[in-house]
Amino acid sequence: RLQGALRRGDWYKTKEILLKGVDWILGEIKASGLRGRGGAGFPTGLKPKYLVVNADEGEPGTCKDREIMRHDPHKLVEGCLVAGRAMGARAAYIYIRGEFYNEASNLQVAIREAYEAGLLGRDACGSGYAFDVFVVRGAGAYICGEETALIESIEGKQGKPRLKPPFPADVGVFGCPTTVANVETVAVAPTICRRGGAWFAGFGRERNSGTKLFNISGHVNNPCTVEEEMSVPLKELIEKHAGGVRGGWNNLLAVIPGGSSTPLLPKSVCETVLMDFDSLVQAQSGLGTAAVIVMDKSTDVVKAIARLIEFYKHESCGQCTPCR
Q1: For the chain, which ranges sit under pLDDT 50?
Q2: Do the beta carbons of residue 75 and residue 186 sit within 8 Å?
Q3: Which of 116, 72, 89 is nearest to 25 (CA)?
Q4: What is the CA radius of gyration of the chain?
Q5: Could you tell me the residue ranges of all domains in the chain?
Q6: So what's the pLDDT on residue 37?
Q7: What CATH number is given for 2-201 in this structure?
Q8: How far is it, in rounded angstroms, from Cα 190 to Cα 11?
Q9: Angle (nearest 5°) at CA 86 between 85 and 88
């Protein structure tokens, strides 16, 4: 609810942030070193009049965005306003996975409260800036997590990726320039503006700065979603927040570090690898969505990977030749 969000610091000095203008907001986000949190890791400040928020979180083991929408939806709504101001947008569309019924309801309540409090609408936060936020529910297709398929779905069409170019930055929703961003990326924007880009960049290491939401699931004692700084050692992340590997660290077989689409890491690599973009690329894997799936020695790795392959086979739209 709004009162709880206000007590947590959401919507604090948002009017001041909006009045400082586009250049200042973009400058702070660039200074923070924030990279997109949806998996690809693009530098956010370099992205180009609609804002589309990708909340179609359908990958096995990934549920970080769900936690934001479930427990703190106002953080996302405020983030839409700040990010929208930065790109000169007049509206944001939050495209949410169809199965996230309660989360979609939470967002609708938060948006209604924001309108009633004058935080959204024709004079958002009293800044003179007009901005609207809409929620669009998907139908559960994993392919709609791809940005152009998501845009097609918002427009009421079949959720299949478009040929590129043109890119969404030129021809996006309803033929208008569009920026597609991840929930976590958008939600952190107001905090960066309030505390400063240098503060955010103080976490992690160069090119891998800031904080990150990590999902930890599988054979651990305490599966959880936790916010930690980038470049935290994988072993520390598992033992500190997830209660360690079931049966002890020596019972570890392998870890999928960034969601089901990233290559798994054997125990020998997990001993020292850091949880950030560059370190995991060097380890021949990737940070992806930062959904850590832990496998102990009872796991049949071939069966586990075959099950993931079956998911992607089922969710393929069949449009491109390799999938057919």
Answers
A1: 39, 42, 44-48
A2: no
A3: 89
A4: 20
A5: 2-201, 204-310
A6: 53
A7: 3.40.50.11540
A8: 8
A9: 60
The pLDDT score that the predictor gives to residue 31 is: 86
Specify whether the CB–CB gap between 86 and 21 falls below 8 A: no
Asked whether 37 and 182 are in contact (CB, 8 A), the reply is yes
- Give the model confidence (pLDDT) of 28-85 as tens digits: 888 888 775 554 554 544 433 899 999 999 888 899 999 999 999 999 999 999 999 9
Fold (topology level) of 204-310: Ubiquitin-like (UB roll) (3.10.20)
The pLDDT of residue 41 is 52
Q: What backbone torsions phi and psi does residue 183 show, to the nearest 5 degrees?
A: -55, -50
- Give CA–CA dist 299/32, Å, rounded: 40
Cβ-proximal residues to 191 (8 Å cutoff; 6+ apart), any chain: 200
78: nearest Cα among 16, 150, 31: 16
Report residue 7 as tokens: 């007590």
Question: Tokens 């953080």 label which residue?
Answer: 75
